[in-house]
Amino acid sequence: MIVRNLEGARVLVVEDDYFLATDLQTALEAAGATVVGPFGDASEAERALLAARPDCAFVDVNLGHGPSFDLPRAVAREDVPFAFVTGYDPGIIPDEFAGVTRFEKPMSATKVVQAMAHMLRGE
């Protein structure tokens, strides 16, 4: 049974792993979301962030060049709730993002959808 708890939400997906990105896109769309992306490049994702004004975002910590937090800072400046995905240890996340939901790869697309629904409700 597909739960459509993201009906009408615009979700920015920033993930450079093709299979993970497409699996996530499929799960989000099945839950009723419109996916902005997915993007595997931070500069493309930032342009989409500013142009599309998503309701929430899903951001990979490493887009192929090591951990970077410039894009999450841009997302936070735009006041868009977001979650991280990473294969890194939790200690890699800067203190400024201590309260941001973090998913470890590999992760369950169902849990991501649930977390996005909670973010959109402000929980």
Describe how the helices and strands are arranged:
Elements (H helix, E strand, L loop, with lengths): L9 E5 L3 H13 L3 E6 L2 H11 L3 E5 L9 H8 L4 E5 L14 E4 L4 H12 L3
Parallel strand pairs: 1-2, 1-3, 3-4, 4-5
Describe what this molecule looks like in 3D.
The mean pLDDT is 88. It is built from 4 helices and 5 strands. The two termini are 24 Å apart. Helix 1 crosses helix 4 (109-120) and helix 2 packs parallel to helix 3 (70-77). It is 36% helix and 20% strand. The radius of gyration is 13 Å and the shape is globular. With 123 residues, the protein is α/β, with parallel strands linked by helices.
Short description:
With 123 residues, this protein is an alpha/beta fold.
Essential attributes:
36% helix; five-stranded parallel beta sheet; alpha/beta; single chain; 123 residues
Order of helices and strands: EHEHEHEEH
Our estimate of the beta-strand percent is 15-25%
**Rg result:** 13 Å
How many helices? The count is: 4
Query: Alpha-carbon distance between the termini?
Result: 24 Å
Question: The biggest beta sheet, please?
Answer: 5 strands, parallel
Helix proportion? 25-40%
Q: What is the approximate shape?
A: globular
- Secondary structure class reads alpha/beta
How confident overall, as mean pLDDT?
Answer: 88
